[in-house]
Every structure is written in structure tokens, then in C-alpha cells.
Amino acid sequence: MNRRTFLGALGSVGVRSLAGGPQTPAKIQQLDLLHLAHTDFGFTDQPAIARELHRRFLDIAVDACIATAKDPDHSRFHWTAESMIIVSDWWQTASAARRERLLEAIRRGQLDVNALACNNSPFMNADQWKLMAGWVPDDLWRKLSPRVGLQDDANGFPRAGATRLLDRGVTRFLMGLNTDSGGTPFPRPAAFWWKMPDGRRLFVYLQEHYGAGLGFFAENWRSMPSPRAADGMFRPPRPGEILAADDESVKKAHARCLKRLGEIEAVGYPYSRLLISMTNQWRYDNDPPFPPVTRFVAAWNRLGLEPRLRLTTAAAAMEDMEKIAGASAPEHQGEWTDFWANGTMSAPREVAASRLAKRCVTIAKSSMWGPMTPGAEKAADGMLRDLVLFDEHTWGSSDSISMPWALDTQAQFAAKAMLAYGPMSRGELLVAERMHALADGKPDGLYVANPTRFPFSGWVRFAKVAFGREFKSLQLDGTDEGLPVEWLPGPPKLAASYEPVDPGRNDADRSVGRIWIHDLAPGKTQRLLPSDREGAHPVAKDTANINSGPDGWPVSIQWRQMKGGPLFESGLGDFLVVKANAPRGVVAQLAAGNYPPAGQAEKRRQILQESWAVPAGPATVRRAGSIATEISQTLKHPRLKYAVRELTVWEHEPRVRLKLRIFRLESDDPESFYVNFVVPAGGVIPLVSNGGVPFLPFEDQLGACCRDYVAIDSWARYRQEGGDWLWVTRDAPLITIGGPNTLARTTGGPQKPNQLMAMVFNNHWHTNFVANSSGAMEFHFDLAWRERIDQPEALAETLMLDPPVLAVPAAAEDPNVLRRLYVPEG
Questions:
Q1: Cα torsion for 704, 589, 41, 11, to the nearest 10°?
Q2: Distance between CA atoms of 9 and 2, rounded to whole angstroms?
Q3: 617 band by pLDDT with thresholds 50, 70 and 90
């Protein structure tokens, strides 16, 4: 992706050696050239077209391997398949004979397959990472024998992915990132050992840009940005147009190569071998193999040119590089955070849909429902596969910013978006199916389930139509205890405007009921029965002491049981807009860190305008018996049609939930939105996790990787002597610590680590991501305190939970209908 600025990058190589590594210069005696196609699921073409093209590319590679199988090894064609998904696509349509040809090429060492499904963005959960390193069945995995993991283009790689590679016996990792709007953790090219939290190590080679290989031998052949495959004015290069194999052309390429290698050697590259990868130059991405590369390599070696040039695979090159560099390569540890993660928040609604889908899969897989049927397993696997593709690093057309409303741009993002919306809807259905199966044969009533690992307390909503009437309470099965029912209006059938609905308005259409469930045990279901008796909430042993500002919005809340200060400090739910008053080209230069540190700071001050939303009026406060207090306030900001923040305060426990609803006005201009939170944790940096692997931002990160923001699973835990604070985000999994850090290229630690901000929108990117997400958006956050929180992920699941609810009528269902409708078959 981001080829416009990349075109210039192909002409230059970063030549600094690895900080902390051996610095003795070595004469490069061999150049290992890895030929591959960079796999973008989109960008150049529609995602479906890209996948089909890659399937054809693999056929071309297999043919080239067959055609050169009997040639000397240095003249054989070699190919590295960058995506296991593409190999799986190809395998499913190939004949038995054709499959055997591919396996023969692998056994001969001519063809190699990435152990990972695709190039990722850092938003996958643990289940997705398990699938990322297990995309094909085990029997096919053994046949393909993947021996190396690859990540190209994107600027980071979570340790969750590294640990899954190690789990599968893959101990080497090749990274060919694109520094556009990002950077490397260490100067490259470099080799190092990456130590995981469990002590295991991955051998890593940080090579130049994945498409830089051709630039060692010639100028760029393609100077245009990414034409579509259907564009008849453009085509892949033909024999002789690149890497011509006549003696004069090869000698000219050799002279250019020596100059480039000399630059690398001069700054202390310590190894006798250099790894570079090469793509074709039709578009640089999603391009076919170039079989004539074998003629160029053969001519180079026939002429006796030095260094020796070897066309090989990633697996073979990495195995040899470990033998050369493994003993002296430095060891590093930490999370490899991604500068490109901010682009994902250009589509906040779709991200929220993907998060809901992941929660649905987790809920559906809960053991409380009993064993998963084969059909349910298949359904969950299909959702996770779509979600892996949603979290793949490609987010749209190469023209997404320059031509945001073009049909191709819109179509590419529509395909991307459905990878979130599809699993969301299927996931909600799967949870309902699991709930129906659990309630099969049980008496009538309203059933509320808690499929998480902690007790649940909070509001539960249900529809009046399920019972056909209003009633005063819902009685807990087997007791005389009743929970009061509050009847609320449902959503308007014909909305007059986009203004948010006030849930407390006094409409005649009171079609939604809600009750407050208190301490529903983990893994349990509660049966409730309608009653016309009055209900009562449990009396709170400890209530919240709310300290409000002049406008009525809380500036702190504390419970007697809390130690070390209130639950939060002033600023909870404040809304910040950072707008770039400069062309995108200037923004891109800032994002890339192309100014010296002082110049970077000065340029940020010149072009970034920060503005906070302000209250449009005083907050309204509503007490719900002795169980909760609800506070609402309207905000105003020039970039929003409306904004409403709503705070629910749990009286029984130190906990609040913030819901923010905004309507972003139409604009293609680059800007970012943040929601503010401040906890009384002093200088403590919060623990977070990515893919199930915890880390401390700033302190536990790899080299100079991104510190402006970090992608997280869903939670951040502050621990200090007075207890543990757990912050949870349901919809927006990208956070900044210590302030907005917009385009800051942060290197040091935060001055205010207790200030955590959720990035809920960002369209600063200059290509590939979404230019203009406008309209209504909604975000939910929870903040809780406990004396000690040792299972933050499990508690976060409970805090985010909207419990599955099922109304069971007195009339029995036909067993055949129940089975066919709610028990998916394999």
C-alpha cells in the first residue's frame, strides 16, 4: 500500500546497521534474492479480483518451477508465496496432479509458503492468531512444510503472532516493512533474536522494503501508481524490459548493485550475506512472478560477478542467515507496535462491528452452552476467517483519498466492511442459537445468561411484545424476590431527524422493558417470571459519592471501599478534535518523521489545531432506585452535528460506564477524534494486551517502534498500592497515553501516564484508508476498581457484556422446527 511515496523509496536503501549489534564491516559475498508477490486483499483491485489473480500467479510460479526443475540450482526459478490464504485458495481448485507438482517444487526447495495467512494489522485477538498460523488443515500444513513467517508492508507485528509461529515450530521471521508514515524499530538491514515473554526466541531478519530488490539492479520500471488489472494501458514487464540478461545489461546492473552494497558495507553491515526481496513492477503489489529473472541470475553468475547472486526462497535464505548471524546477533524483547494502526480508525463503525462479532464468537464458544455442534464450530470458524481478512493490513483502494467517491474506492471498502458486518450478524445469530438450545424443554419465562467468568451486574433490556403486556416486576425463579421493571420507549419508527433519541422521554409507546440484574453468577442462567407485584432492588452497602463540576458533570466519584483516590479525575469523557490545517502531503511528511526533532515539534504546532468540545448545557441526573445513577450531557463542537455523553454509575461497586454518541459532519480534511480519561494512578503506566499477550507501553516495546498510540485487545489496567483500575473499551481499540500524541513520533515516556485517550476516529492517512467516515457513531467504555485484578481480560469480558436474553413462551415448540432452525448442521 501507499505506493505514491514508496516509488521514491525504491531508489534508496536505509543503510544504517542494527543499533546494539556487531559493527565490524564485512564484505558482502552473496546476495540472496527472494522473489514474491506482495499480497494486498484490495488496493490495486477489488479483493475478490486480487485473490483470483494471486491464484493464477501461483500457477505461473509452479509452471516456472517445473520448467527449470532440471537446471542447475542457481538457474532454477524460486518463488515465495507470501500468503497462506492464497495457497489455500489455489489448493481448493487445483487437480490432484497439479497439487503434486506444487509439492514437488516445495520438496526441491524451489517454492516456499509463508506460515502466516496474510499480512496483518495489529487488531487480532488470540483466536484469530491461532487461525493465522493454522489457516490450512494439519495434513496440508505438513505437506506444505512452512518454515518461516513473513510480514511485509505493515510497520509492526504483535508478539501474539510470534508466539503462535513458535507454537507451530516456526522459528524464523522475515520482515519487509514499508516506512511510509512509519518506521523500523532498528536501522536496517539487520538480524536479531526476538525474545518472547515465555523465554522462547524467534530469529528475525529486518530486510529492506519488500519490493526493493529490483532497485539494486535498475531504476524503477513502473513510475505510475497502481493501475487496475483491467486497465489495458498497463501490463507486467516482459522479458528484457527489466533484468535484461545480455552481458552489457548485466554488467551495468552489477555496477549499480556494487554501489548500493558499498553504502551498506560502509556503515558497518556485519554479515557476508544480504537478503533482499523483489516484486514485479506492474503495480509493485498484487503482481505475477517474473520467470525471466532466472536468466538474469544465470548470466550474472556465468560472468563470475561478485558478490554471487542466488535466487532462493525465504525459508532457505533465513536458514542460512541464521547460521551466519545467529551466534552474534543481539537479543531484543518487547511488543512490535505498528505505526499504521491509526489508519484502521478511519472506519470506526466497521471496527465496532468487528469487535461485536469477536465478542459474539467468544460468547458462543462459552462452555456454559455445552459442547459446540459441528455446525456451530463451522460457523464460528467462518466468522473468524472473515475477521482475519477484515484485520488484514489492506483497507481499500490506492485512490481512496484522492478519489474517495469513485466507484472502485467505494466498492473496495464495501467489500472490506462486509468482512465485519457479515460476522457481526452471523455471530449474533450463533449466540441466539446457543441460547435457544440451552433453553430447549425448559418452562416459560425470561432467561438471562452470563457466559463470562465473573459475576454480572447491570441493565438487561427486553421487548414488551415477548409478553404482550406491561407488568411491574420480574420474579426470580424459586424465590419471592422481584426485580422492578422500568418501561421505556423503543426506537422511533419514523425518525424526523438524526438527533439522538432521549431514552427518558415520556412517550406512549413504551415497548422496551429493563431490569437491573445483580451478581448473576458466571456461567449461569437466571429464569425470570412476569409479575404484577412490586419489586425491589437490593440495598447498596456502599454508594457512590459523586463530586460534580459547575455544569453538573462529574469530576470524580469515590466509594468508601476504595483506597488511593477516586475512580477517575476531572476530564472523564471530554472530547477532543485535532485537525490538520495543511495539505495531506505535509501531514504525510509529519507522519513519516521526516523533520528533525525540533522541526517536527515546530511543524506540529504550526499545522495541528486542538479544540475540545464544550457543554451545550448542564448535565441531567437521574437516580434509578438504589442501584444506579445516570448522568447525561449534550456537547457541542464545530465538527459535530451533535454529541451526547451518558454516564451510568453503579452504586453497589466502584464502576462506571460511559457511552458517547456523536455525529461527524462531512469532511475529507485530515483530523482525529479522542475521548479522554484520567485515573488517579500518578506515574504508573498501564498494562495492556494485544492478541492476549500483555505488555507495558513505552517500557516493553521493541526498539523505536510506534509509541504515539498502541492497539489493544480491550483493556488497560493501572496497578498501584491503593488498588487496581481497569479501563475497558468496547468499540475503539486504539489508545494514546499521556495526551493525543497526534503525529508526534514519540520516543520518550509520557509525562502524564494516568491520562488515557481512546482514538475513535483518524483519517490522516494519504492513501488506502477511508477518507471520510461521517454520520452517527457510538462508543462505550467501562472503568472499574478492585483491590486486585489478576485476570483483566476475563473481567473486561464481563464489563462489556450485554447478556443474551431469551423469552420462552408457555407453548411448546415443534422439536423438528427447533432443531432445524436453531441447531446448525455441519
A1: -90
A2: 11
A3: very high
- 48, part of any domain: yes
CATH number reported for the structural domain that contains residue 158 in this entry? 3.20.110.10
Residue the block writes with cell 509492526? 156
Instruction: At 165, give phi and psi (nearest 5°).
Output: -60, -45
Q: Which three cell numbers stand for residue 304?
A: 563470475
Q: Is 311 exposed, middle or buried (0-12, 13-18, 19+ CB in 10 A)?
A: buried
* Residues in Cβ contact with 493 at an 8 Å cutoff, skipping those fewer than 6 apart: none
Q: Is residue 805 part of a domain?
A: no
Looking at 294, 316, 333, the residue that finishes a domain is 333
**Residues 522 and 569 reside in one and the same domain:** no
Q: For the chain, first and last CA: distance in Å?
A: 38
Torsional class of 20: left (φ above 0), alpha (ψ -120 to 50), beta (otherwise): left
pLDDT in tens, 546-596: 999 999 999 999 999 998 899 999 999 999 999 999 888 888 888 888 888
Together in a domain, 385 and 471: yes
What is the per-residue DSSP string for 731-749?
S--EEEESS--TT----S-
Rounded to 10°, the helix 407-439/815-822 angle is 140
- Torsion angle of C-alpha atoms 689, 695, 701, 706, degrees rounded to 10: 30
Q: What one-character DSSP code corresponds to residue 455?
A: -
Calpha distance 631→618 (Å, rounded): 10
**How, if at all, do strands 79-81 and 554-558 pair?**
unpaired
pLDDT given at position 508 = 57
Which domain CATH number covers 673? 2.70.98.30
What H or E segment, with its residue span, contains residue 459? Answer: strand 456-463
**Assessment of whether the complete model's pTM goes beyond 0.90:** yes
Are both 244 and 327 inside the same structural domain?
yes
**Is residue 112 domain-shared with residue 156, that is, in the same domain?**
yes
In this structure, what C-alpha cell is assigned to residue 305?
A: 560477478
Average pLDDT of the chain, as a whole number: 92
Q: What 8-state DSSP symbol labels residue 36?
A: B
Number of domain units in the chain: 3
Range of the domain at 657: 545-799
DSSP E strands, 625-767: 628-636, 640-650, 655-664, 671-678, 687-690, 693-695, 710-711, 715-720, 723-729, 734-737, 755-762
Note whether residue 23 is domain-resident.
no
Q: 533482499: which residue's cell?
A: 276
SS3 helix, strand, coil % of the chain, rounded to 5?
30, 25, 45
For residue 501, the one-letter residue type is V
Q: Which residues pair with 755 in a beta bridge?
A: 678
pLDDT tens per residue, range 141-175:
999 999 999 999 999 999 999 999 999 999 999 99
What torsion, rounded to 10 degrees, do the Cα atoms 354, 358, 361, 365 define? 180
Provide the H-helix boundaries in 267-373. 293-302, 314-325, 348-364
> Residues 89, 157: one domain?
yes
The one-letter amino acid at 666? E
Are 296 and 32 spatial neighbours (Cβ–Cβ below 8 Å)?
A: no
The three three-digit cell numbers of residue 199, written as one number: 523465554
Instruction: Using alpha carbons, select from 367, 430, 353 the residue that is nearest to residue 730.
Output: 353
With respect to residue 804, please indicate whether it lies within any of the assigned structural domains: no
Angstrom distance (rounded) from CA 73 to CA 546: 75
Q: Smallest Cα–Cα separation from 710: which of 724, 690, 682?
A: 690
Q: Please say whether the beta carbons of 442 and 808 come within 8 A.
A: yes
Cα–Cα distance for residue pair 446/245, rounded to 1 Å: 76
Tell me: do 352 and 455 sit in the same domain. yes
List, in sequence order, every residue forming a beta bridge with 631; answer none if it has no partner.
621, 647
Q: Are residues 465 and 320 in the same domain?
A: no
**Burial classification of residue 354, based on how many CB atoms lie within 10 Å of its CB (0-12 exposed, 13-18 middle, 19 or more buried):** buried
Report d(CA 569, CA 555) in Å as an integer. 6
Residues 530 and 679 in one domain: no
How many CA atoms lie within 13 Å of 312's alpha carbon, on the beta-carbon side? Answer: 18
